[in-house]
Amino acid sequence: MPLKIIGTGLARTGTSSLKIAIEKLGIGRCYHMKEVLADPEHIGFWVEVAEGRANFDRVFSGYSATVDFPACIYWRDLIEYYPEAKIILSTRAAEDWFRATQKTFLSPRLWESGLSGPFGDMFGAMIRRFFDGEIHDHDHLIELFDRHVEEIKVLVPPERLLIFKVTQGWQPLCKFLGLPMPDEPFPHANREQDTRGFLEDSMASIAGAEVGALSTATTQTTSTSVI
Protein backbone atom coordinates (compact mmCIF):
# COMPACT_ATOMS: atom_id res chain seq x y z
CA MET A 1 0.00 0.00 0.00
CA PRO A 2 1.32 3.52 -0.69
CA LEU A 3 2.21 5.73 2.24
CA LYS A 4 -0.46 8.26 3.14
CA ILE A 5 1.71 10.29 5.51
CA ILE A 6 5.44 11.01 5.45
CA GLY A 7 6.90 12.51 8.61
CA THR A 8 9.98 14.55 7.75
CA GLY A 9 10.81 15.74 11.27
CA LEU A 10 14.02 14.55 12.87
CA ALA A 11 14.10 12.29 15.91
CA ARG A 12 13.42 14.11 19.19
CA THR A 13 10.77 16.36 17.65
CA GLY A 14 7.86 14.40 19.07
CA THR A 15 7.97 11.60 16.54
CA SER A 16 6.93 8.89 18.99
CA SER A 17 3.89 10.92 20.05
CA LEU A 18 3.07 11.63 16.41
CA LYS A 19 3.32 7.92 15.57
CA ILE A 20 0.80 7.07 18.28
CA ALA A 21 -1.49 9.92 17.23
CA ILE A 22 -1.50 8.82 13.58
CA GLU A 23 -2.38 5.27 14.57
CA LYS A 24 -5.12 6.46 16.94
CA LEU A 25 -6.68 8.38 14.04
CA GLY A 26 -7.17 5.07 12.22
CA ILE A 27 -4.82 5.84 9.34
CA GLY A 28 -2.94 2.59 9.77
CA ARG A 29 0.40 1.44 11.13
CA CYS A 30 3.09 4.06 11.35
CA TYR A 31 6.75 3.18 10.75
CA HIS A 32 9.37 4.42 13.25
CA MET A 33 12.91 3.56 14.28
CA LYS A 34 11.34 1.23 16.83
CA GLU A 35 10.18 -0.97 13.96
CA VAL A 36 13.78 -1.30 12.79
CA LEU A 37 14.96 -2.23 16.26
CA ALA A 38 12.18 -4.79 16.58
CA ASP A 39 12.84 -6.58 13.28
CA PRO A 40 16.44 -7.35 12.24
CA GLU A 41 15.31 -7.87 8.64
CA HIS A 42 14.61 -4.15 8.44
CA ILE A 43 18.22 -3.38 9.27
CA GLY A 44 19.13 -5.02 5.98
CA PHE A 45 16.45 -3.07 4.16
CA TRP A 46 17.95 0.23 5.30
CA VAL A 47 21.49 -0.82 4.53
CA GLU A 48 20.28 -1.33 0.97
CA VAL A 49 18.67 2.12 1.01
CA ALA A 50 21.94 3.64 2.23
CA GLU A 51 23.76 1.88 -0.60
CA GLY A 52 21.39 3.32 -3.20
CA ARG A 53 19.31 0.16 -3.64
CA ALA A 54 16.07 1.37 -2.09
CA ASN A 55 12.95 -0.77 -2.24
CA PHE A 56 10.48 1.42 -0.38
CA ASP A 57 7.50 -0.80 -1.15
CA ARG A 58 9.22 -3.61 0.71
CA VAL A 59 10.40 -1.40 3.58
CA PHE A 60 6.93 0.02 4.21
CA SER A 61 4.89 -3.07 3.40
CA GLY A 62 1.90 -3.06 5.79
CA TYR A 63 2.42 0.57 6.83
CA SER A 64 0.39 3.65 5.95
CA ALA A 65 2.70 6.27 7.43
CA THR A 66 6.27 6.85 8.53
CA VAL A 67 7.97 9.19 11.00
CA ASP A 68 11.40 9.50 12.63
CA PHE A 69 14.75 8.07 11.52
CA PRO A 70 15.74 6.40 9.33
CA ALA A 71 12.99 7.34 6.87
CA CYS A 72 13.17 11.10 7.47
CA ILE A 73 16.74 11.11 6.12
CA TYR A 74 15.33 10.14 2.73
CA TRP A 75 12.40 12.53 2.71
CA ARG A 76 13.21 13.89 -0.76
CA ASP A 77 13.05 10.40 -2.27
CA LEU A 78 9.92 9.51 -0.35
CA ILE A 79 7.84 12.57 -1.24
CA GLU A 80 8.63 11.93 -4.89
CA TYR A 81 7.99 8.18 -4.68
CA TYR A 82 4.67 8.71 -2.88
CA PRO A 83 3.30 11.83 -4.62
CA GLU A 84 -0.13 11.60 -2.96
CA ALA A 85 1.22 11.41 0.59
CA LYS A 86 0.75 14.30 2.98
CA ILE A 87 3.89 15.63 4.64
CA ILE A 88 4.15 16.39 8.35
CA LEU A 89 7.21 18.27 9.54
CA SER A 90 7.38 17.82 13.30
CA THR A 91 9.64 20.41 14.88
CA ARG A 92 10.59 22.17 18.11
CA ALA A 93 13.01 24.84 19.32
CA ALA A 94 16.44 24.00 17.91
CA GLU A 95 18.24 24.41 21.25
CA ASP A 96 15.79 22.09 22.99
CA TRP A 97 16.21 19.57 20.19
CA PHE A 98 20.01 19.66 20.48
CA ARG A 99 19.93 19.07 24.24
CA ALA A 100 17.52 16.17 23.77
CA THR A 101 19.72 14.50 21.15
CA GLN A 102 22.75 14.59 23.42
CA LYS A 103 20.82 12.81 26.16
CA THR A 104 19.40 10.13 23.88
CA PHE A 105 20.32 8.83 20.41
CA LEU A 106 23.42 11.04 20.01
CA SER A 107 24.61 10.69 23.58
CA PRO A 108 28.34 10.05 24.06
CA ARG A 109 27.40 7.14 26.32
CA LEU A 110 25.51 5.38 23.53
CA TRP A 111 28.16 5.93 20.87
CA GLU A 112 31.08 5.16 23.14
CA SER A 113 29.42 1.92 24.24
CA GLY A 114 30.33 0.59 20.82
CA LEU A 115 27.61 0.40 18.25
CA SER A 116 28.59 -2.79 16.48
CA GLY A 117 27.17 -5.49 14.27
CA PRO A 118 24.51 -4.97 11.59
CA PHE A 119 22.56 -2.34 13.53
CA GLY A 120 25.74 -0.45 14.36
CA ASP A 121 26.74 -0.52 10.71
CA MET A 122 23.35 0.81 9.66
CA PHE A 123 23.20 3.39 12.43
CA GLY A 124 26.68 4.64 11.66
CA ALA A 125 26.24 4.65 7.91
CA MET A 126 22.99 6.55 8.04
CA ILE A 127 22.77 8.60 11.24
CA ARG A 128 26.43 9.54 11.54
CA ARG A 129 26.60 10.28 7.82
CA PHE A 130 23.48 12.46 8.02
CA PHE A 131 25.13 14.55 10.72
CA ASP A 132 28.44 14.66 8.81
CA GLY A 133 30.07 12.76 11.66
CA GLU A 134 29.72 15.80 13.95
CA ILE A 135 27.23 14.23 16.31
CA HIS A 136 28.21 16.32 19.36
CA ASP A 137 29.04 19.66 17.72
CA HIS A 138 26.45 22.19 18.91
CA ASP A 139 26.79 24.77 16.16
CA HIS A 140 26.91 22.19 13.39
CA LEU A 141 23.81 20.36 14.62
CA ILE A 142 21.82 23.55 15.13
CA GLU A 143 22.70 24.70 11.62
CA LEU A 144 21.79 21.30 10.19
CA PHE A 145 18.47 21.26 12.05
CA ASP A 146 17.52 24.72 10.80
CA ARG A 147 18.58 23.89 7.25
CA HIS A 148 16.56 20.68 7.30
CA VAL A 149 13.42 22.60 8.29
CA GLU A 150 13.95 25.36 5.74
CA GLU A 151 14.60 22.97 2.85
CA ILE A 152 11.35 21.15 3.55
CA LYS A 153 9.43 24.43 3.71
CA VAL A 154 10.88 25.44 0.35
CA LEU A 155 10.57 22.14 -1.52
CA VAL A 156 7.21 20.81 -0.31
CA PRO A 157 4.10 22.56 -1.68
CA PRO A 158 2.32 24.36 1.17
CA GLU A 159 -0.99 22.57 0.53
CA ARG A 160 0.80 19.26 1.07
CA LEU A 161 2.72 20.28 4.21
CA LEU A 162 1.88 20.62 7.89
CA ILE A 163 4.50 22.17 10.16
CA PHE A 164 3.60 20.69 13.50
CA LYS A 165 4.60 20.85 17.15
CA VAL A 166 3.18 18.11 19.34
CA THR A 167 2.36 20.74 21.96
CA GLN A 168 -0.34 21.96 19.53
CA GLY A 169 -2.33 18.79 20.09
CA TRP A 170 -5.02 17.30 17.88
CA GLN A 171 -6.53 20.37 16.25
CA PRO A 172 -3.99 21.26 13.51
CA LEU A 173 -3.23 17.61 12.79
CA CYS A 174 -6.86 16.60 12.38
CA LYS A 175 -7.68 19.69 10.35
CA PHE A 176 -4.79 18.96 7.99
CA LEU A 177 -5.85 15.32 7.58
CA GLY A 178 -9.57 16.09 7.39
CA LEU A 179 -10.39 13.86 10.34
CA PRO A 180 -12.46 14.40 13.52
CA MET A 181 -10.59 15.02 16.74
CA PRO A 182 -10.53 12.07 19.17
CA ASP A 183 -12.20 12.53 22.52
CA GLU A 184 -8.99 11.93 24.44
CA PRO A 185 -5.78 13.82 25.20
CA PHE A 186 -3.10 13.99 22.55
CA PRO A 187 -0.46 11.32 23.30
CA HIS A 188 2.84 12.40 24.79
CA ALA A 189 5.41 9.62 24.69
CA ASN A 190 9.12 8.92 24.67
CA ARG A 191 10.47 10.99 27.51
CA GLU A 192 14.25 11.30 27.49
CA GLN A 193 14.85 8.78 30.25
CA ASP A 194 12.52 6.30 28.56
CA THR A 195 14.31 6.77 25.24
CA ARG A 196 17.74 6.21 26.81
CA GLY A 197 16.54 3.02 28.45
CA PHE A 198 14.89 1.78 25.27
CA LEU A 199 18.00 2.40 23.16
CA GLU A 200 20.33 0.78 25.67
CA ASP A 201 18.05 -2.25 26.06
CA SER A 202 17.79 -2.57 22.28
CA MET A 203 21.54 -2.38 21.84
CA ALA A 204 22.04 -5.06 24.49
CA SER A 205 19.39 -7.26 22.88
CA ILE A 206 20.90 -6.93 19.42
CA ALA A 207 24.40 -7.55 20.76
CA GLY A 208 23.15 -10.62 22.63
CA ALA A 209 21.49 -11.99 19.51
CA GLU A 210 24.70 -11.52 17.54
CA VAL A 211 26.78 -13.23 20.22
CA GLY A 212 24.24 -16.07 20.34
CA ALA A 213 24.36 -16.51 16.59
CA LEU A 214 28.15 -16.52 16.66
CA SER A 215 28.19 -19.04 19.49
CA THR A 216 25.80 -21.34 17.61
CA ALA A 217 27.84 -21.09 14.45
CA THR A 218 31.03 -21.87 16.38
CA THR A 219 29.42 -24.86 18.05
CA GLN A 220 28.19 -26.19 14.71
CA THR A 221 31.63 -25.77 13.17
CA THR A 222 33.29 -27.54 16.09
CA SER A 223 30.81 -30.42 15.92
CA THR A 224 31.37 -30.84 12.23
CA SER A 225 35.13 -30.91 12.76
CA VAL A 226 34.82 -33.61 15.39
CA ILE A 227 32.64 -35.73 13.11
Give structural notes.
This protein is an alpha/beta fold and 227 residues long. It has eleven helices and five strands, in the order E-H-E-H-H-H-E-H-E-H-H-H-H-E-H-H. It has a five-stranded parallel β-sheet, with helices on both faces. The radius of gyration is 19 Å and the shape is globular.
Summary, kept brief:
This protein has 227 residues and is of the alpha/beta class. The protein has helices at residues 15-24, 33-38, 40-50, 56-59, 75-81, 94-103, 108-112, 117-130, 138-155, 170-177, 192-226; strands at 5-7, 30-31, 65-66, 86-90, 161-164.
Question: Topology, pairings included?
Answer:
Layout: E1 5-7, H1 15-24, E2 30-31, H2 33-38, H3 40-50, H4 56-59, E3 65-66, H5 75-81, E4 86-90, H6 94-103, H7 108-112, H8 117-130, H9 138-155, E5 161-164, H10 170-177, H11 192-226
Parallel strand pairs: 1-3, 1-4, 2-3, 4-5
- How many separate helices? 11
Mean model confidence by pLDDT = 85
Major β-sheet profile: 5 strands, parallel
- CATH structural architecture: 3-Layer(aba) Sandwich
Q: Which class best fits the helix and strand makeup?
A: alpha/beta
Count of the domains:
1
Any low-confidence stretches, pLDDT <50, length ≥5?
Answer: 206-227
Query: What is the CATH superfamily classification?
Result: P-loop containing nucleotide triphosphate hydrolases
What integer value in Å does the Rg equal?
Answer: 19 Å
- Give the H and E element order: EHEHHHEHEHHHHEHH
Oligomer: single chain
Physical arrangement of strands within the biggest beta sheet: 2-3-1-4-5
**Which CATH C-level class is it?**
Alpha Beta
N-to-C CA distance: 50 Å
Shape: globular
Helix content: 55-70%
Examine the coordinates and then state which fold CATH places here, giving the name of the CATH topology: Rossmann fold
Number of strands: 5
* Percent strand: 5-15%
